[in-house]
Structures are given as C-alpha cells and as structure tokens.
Amino acid sequence: MGVSNVKQWSRIVKEALDRAFFTAKFLCLLHVSNTYLCTVALAHGPSMLPTLNLSGDLILADRLSVRFGKVGPGDIVLVRSPQNPRKIITKRVVGMGGDRVTFSVDPKDSRRCETVVVPEGHVWIAGDNIYASTDSRNFGAVPYGLLQGKVFWRIWPPQGFGLLRHVNE
Amino acid sequence: MKCRRFGGKGEEDMGALSKLSQWRTLAREAAERTAILAKFLCILHVTNTYICTPTLVYGPSMLPTFNLTGDVLLVENLTVRMGKVRPGDVVLVRSPENPRKTVSKRILGMEGDRVTFMIDPKNSNRCQSVVIPKGHVWIQGDNIYASHDSRNFGPVPYGLIQGKVFFRVWPLNGFGSLRQ
C-alpha cells in the first residue's frame, strides 16, 4: 500500500517538474524575444493624436532597429522618459544628431519659433499633437541610448490594425 | 517463387528514399543543436539581466580605483532597476555622446542635489555649482584630470545607467568587492 503511494507521488512530482521546466523554458524564450526582438506596448494619452488614440492602443515595437541605428526622422519610437526613468513614452523622431530643428515654443499662445541644433548622440522627439505633448520642446534633445524600440504595427483597436505609416518630413 | 527487382526504377527509389532519410536526420540534428544553443543563450541572458554580468573596463578616468590597462568587473542591474543607486556607487553608463559606448564612472549626485565641481582642475581653481534636474544623475571619474564626464556633458538621465559595479574579478591582487 505504502509503496504504491510513494510510486504514485513520485510520478506526479516528476510530471509536475517536467511541466514546470517546460513553462520556465517558454517564459525564458518569451522574455528574450521581448528584450531583443519585438515588444508589445500600450500607448495612451493625448500627445500622439490623431495617430494614436487617447484611450489606449496596443502597438508592436521592434528592438533591432534601435540596436542597429536604423532609426530616422519620421519614425515613432518608445523612449524612456528623461524626467522619470520608470516611464516609457511614445513620440515621433523629428531630428537626429547634427540636424537643425525648428519648433514653435508655445503653439497655443504665440507663433514664436526657435531653432536648435541637435547635439551628436541625441535625438529630438515631438508628439504629433503639439498642443498637448511634453517632449523635446520641454526637456531638450534626449540621448539616443534612451530609445527603447521603433513602433511599426498597431494591433488594437481592430479598425486601426496595421502598419503605422512613416511620415516623411 | 521469389521475385527480385534489381536495377531500373527500384534502385532509384531506394536512392531517393535513403537521401531523404539522410536529410531528415541532418535536419533533426541541426534543430537539436539550435535548440541547445537557444536554451544556452536564454540562460545567459537571464543571468546577465537578473544576477550579474562581467565586463572589462579600461582607461585612465577611474584611476586609482580601476587600472589603466583593464579590470574585469562584475556588474548587476537589479539595484538600478529598483532605483536604489546612491552617490558613491560606481556605475556603467551608456555615453550620451556616443550611444555605442559604455563608460564606467562614479555617481556624485542624484536629482535635486547641488553639485560643486572644478571646471578645469589642471589650469585653474575655479568652481561651478549646478542643481541636478529631475530624473538625472551627476557622474564623474575618480581621476578628475583625465576624465570626460558630467563636467563636460552635463547631468545624464537615470535611464542611461546600465548597471552597478560591485565586485572586481581581475587583476587578482584587486579581487574583491569595491569599497566606497
């Protein structure tokens, strides 16, 4: 009686361990592909209207473009905020290092413009909705090392499913 | 009565079948090797991200803490991700001037701190004082005469910190954890 109980238990334990290892390997693979290949992000807020919705869009961002330096003006990128390192924001790249960028300082109040040269190793990011966006006009050019991924596809809401267009300057 | 087919179509079939099974064995072996490699890289990545990773640092900017010709250090990034980095820690930072370069420096101030530093210690004694903005840190090399750091490019965003150095592995006479 006792021996058969032990045998049953050992079989159950072995099966549980097998399943646990399989799950661990799968999660590992998911984590690695999330870090090096492609990641899913939920973007919400008014700063990228009308491109991205106010209430939240699920977007896919690839990590290889950033790693290999294939990000350019017109791309939507995920950036770690220079003001709050725990926050990741979605903005569009307007200029790379060495470019000259012209922007209106406060579009609601005046039409005063300013021109800035983006330092080497930095990018200038701006939200599509310039009236409600905290971006490089507020905190200056951000170092390229803060870029987390380049957004290329929207998966939710379904009527917006598809490629997010690159905007030519 | 036995029939034997030799030559002609029979042997061609056998040849094609054996080649197919050879291919299949090769493919299966390749898939197994790839799976082992993928699992190994997975484990390497998880170790590097959640436990620690070794790195080689060289250059004059952190003398006398680190040697000129190169030290192998162990770096962990759990402290960075939890936001528990403090002034006095030696960290690896992605350079704000060249994103492909990672430098090792010491943190001298966190956000909100006021930092006083000598602009050009070789030539003059003039000092300057700066308040570090929100979300940024002030990094400086221990060897202020030969270091390109926040005195040149200003405070760097916290998000550029890649890891905190906690142990030296090589050279052996420096083996051990790093003192403040």
From TrEMBL, chain A:
<dbReference type="InterPro" id="IPR019757">
    <property type="entry name" value="Pept_S26A_signal_pept_1_Lys-AS"/>
</dbReference>
<protein>
    <recommendedName>
        <fullName>Peptidase S26 domain-containing protein</fullName>
    </recommendedName>
</protein>
<keyword id="KW-0999">Mitochondrion inner membrane</keyword>
<dbReference type="InterPro" id="IPR019533">
    <property type="entry name" value="Peptidase_S26"/>
</dbReference>
<dbReference type="InterPro" id="IPR052064">
    <property type="entry name" value="Mito_IMP1_subunit"/>
</dbReference>
<dbReference type="Pfam" id="PF10502">
    <property type="entry name" value="Peptidase_S26"/>
</dbReference>
<comment type="similarity">
    <text>Belongs to the peptidase S26 family. IMP1 subfamily.</text>
</comment>
<dbReference type="InterPro" id="IPR000223">
    <property type="entry name" value="Pept_S26A_signal_pept_1"/>
</dbReference>
<feature type="domain" description="Peptidase S26">
    <location>
        <begin position="26"/>
        <end position="104"/>
    </location>
</feature>
<keyword id="KW-0472">Membrane</keyword>
<feature type="domain" description="Peptidase S26">
    <location>
        <begin position="113"/>
        <end position="156"/>
    </location>
</feature>
<dbReference type="InterPro" id="IPR036286">
    <property type="entry name" value="LexA/Signal_pep-like_sf"/>
</dbReference>
<keyword id="KW-0378">Hydrolase</keyword>
<keyword id="KW-0496">Mitochondrion</keyword>
Automatic annotation (TrEMBL), chain B:
<keyword id="KW-0999">Mitochondrion inner membrane</keyword>
<keyword id="KW-0472">Membrane</keyword>
<feature type="domain" description="Peptidase S26">
    <location>
        <begin position="37"/>
        <end position="117"/>
    </location>
</feature>
<keyword id="KW-0496">Mitochondrion</keyword>
<comment type="similarity">
    <text>Belongs to the peptidase S26 family. IMP1 subfamily.</text>
</comment>
<dbReference type="InterPro" id="IPR000223">
    <property type="entry name" value="Pept_S26A_signal_pept_1"/>
</dbReference>
<dbReference type="InterPro" id="IPR036286">
    <property type="entry name" value="LexA/Signal_pep-like_sf"/>
</dbReference>
<feature type="domain" description="Peptidase S26">
    <location>
        <begin position="126"/>
        <end position="170"/>
    </location>
</feature>
<protein>
    <recommendedName>
        <fullName>Peptidase S26 domain-containing protein</fullName>
    </recommendedName>
</protein>
<dbReference type="Pfam" id="PF10502">
    <property type="entry name" value="Peptidase_S26"/>
</dbReference>
<keyword id="KW-0378">Hydrolase</keyword>
<dbReference type="InterPro" id="IPR019533">
    <property type="entry name" value="Peptidase_S26"/>
</dbReference>
<dbReference type="InterPro" id="IPR052064">
    <property type="entry name" value="Mito_IMP1_subunit"/>
</dbReference>
